[in-house]
Each structure stands twice: as structure tokens, then as C-alpha cells.
Amino acid sequence: MTKAVIIYGGHTRKSRLKGVLDRAEKFLSINDFEFETIYVHELPAHDLISANYKSESIIDANALVAAAEVVIIVTPTYKASYSGILKTYLDLLPQKGFEGKTILPLVVGGSFGHLLVIEYALKPVLSALGARMILKGAFVLDTQIEYAENNQFQLHPQAEERLANVLQLVQEESQYSTPIYR
Predict the structure, then answer these.
(1) What is 116-162 written as a DSSP string?
(2) Residue 178 pLDDT
(3) Which of 28, 82, 99, 143 is most deeply buried (CB count within 10 A of its CB)?
(4) Contact (CB, 8 A) for 109 and 50
(5) Res. 180: pLDDT tops 70
(6) Has residue 179 got a pLDDT over 50?
(7) Do the strands 70-78 and 81-82 form a parallel or antiparallel pair, or are they unpaired?
(8) Are the CB atoms for 95 and 130 separated by under 8 Å?
């Protein structure tokens, strides 16, 4: 069974970003991945801001990343970049924390003007953390995610299709990757 971890870089579980997270979690469940989700905003704020590498919560979160073969990064777009919350956590990962892992970025933003956030803001940081297998990510407009009820979200068919396509890449990579990526 392939191990995965989702790093949720949003500031609440109630934003439209959660719709993308829910879709990723559903995909992993259906395809028999063993996975955990790290809600960065629920890690101790003082430990994140003060870069407390010795924090038990940070050590536990980093252990989940270390054990995973697949890492899915879910983040909103702010000021043409990924969230600052996500950045504070990425700064606490070991220097080669993503080495040998398959990485999938999933980003939500307000306009397609921010579409390049994956290529120009997020991928360089992921590469600096040792990632070499960064899959084509997905950018979803926030208007393509609607709140349904009971903290559930409905994805527009175009967004659903985009997410399904990139999530399928995770499945394919985990089935056919060579031991070099393990």
C-alpha cells in the first residue's frame, strides 16, 4: 500500500480550498492509499513562527512526510504565491525532505492570472527541498468550488475533471515508478 500525506496550507477547514482537499482525500481512499493530512494552521503557531524544529507537533508532522511516498500540497493563492502558512511549515522540513517523493501541487486562486503560481512560486521551493518528481499540478478557480451544506463542497465539472486528471497521475506514478523514487 502506497503511503501519502496531504499538506493543507489553508487557514481554515471551512474555505473553498477544503473542497479540493476533500476531492484529494476521496481519491486516495478509493485507490487504497494509506494517508494522513497535515493541517498546517492547526500546528502550534508559535512553533511555526519561531521555527521550533524541536516541537513535538512539528516532529510528528515531519515524520508523516518522511514516511510518505506521495506528497500532495494543497494551498490557496495569496498575492500571486502560495500561502504564508504553508511556507512557515515548509521551512521546518529537513533540507531534502521531499527527496525521492512524488509531489502533486493543488492550488486554488481567484483568477487565472495566478495560474503560474505553481511553476514560478511553488515548484522552486519544492525543488529546493529535494523534489525531483513534481507532477503537473492543478489550479482551480475559487468560483469553481461552491459550498453545498454541512461543510461539503461542490466542484464545477471543469475543476472536477482537472483534479481527476492530475490525481490519476499520482496513481500511475505510484504503480509504475522505479525503486529510485522509493
Answers:
(1) THIIIIIHHHHHHTT--EE---EEEEGGGEEE-STT-EEE-HHHHHH
(2) 45
(3) 82
(4) no
(5) no
(6) no
(7) antiparallel
(8) yes
